[in-house]
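Narrative of activities, Objective 1.

The group set out to show that a structural description can be obtained from nothing but a protein's sequence at a throughput compatible with the screening campaign. Below is one input-output pair from the validation batch, recorded exactly as produced.
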Amino acid sequence: MNDPGLDEPIQETSKDVEQDRKDELDFQKEDEQAFLNPSRWWFASTAFPLLAVCATEHGEGKTTDGL
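Output recorded for this entry:
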């Protein structure tokens, strides 16, 4: 029960819906990455100085030049 002349408009609408869905998924991925970037920066700027402090407290990195 196909109506003549509706195949093309239906295909165009289908392509538009698929493109809209793809655009929405791309936006969600970009939004997620934008959310994660500050936490990665925080981790990098906090963890490495803490590791350096721990290393110096446990004797690594100390010199015996003055003894």
